[in-house]
Amino acid sequence: MADAVKGPASYFPSIEKKYGRPIAEWKDLIRSSPLTKHMELVAWLKTEHGLGHGHANALVADTLAEGR
Description:
The chain has 68 residues and is an all-alpha fold.
């Protein structure tokens, strides 16, 4: 049996289902943003794209962990 997904990626299935965009698209948006700070990006996703805090935080954390 495969290990369960942990960390920010555990939110990805529900993000795709709720907001109707693939994770790759969200990550591209984050990478293309002129914002660089974690909480600035979270606030931007919440206000401009209507994401909840947990979903926005998970996307930003995972994307920034990859490097810019």
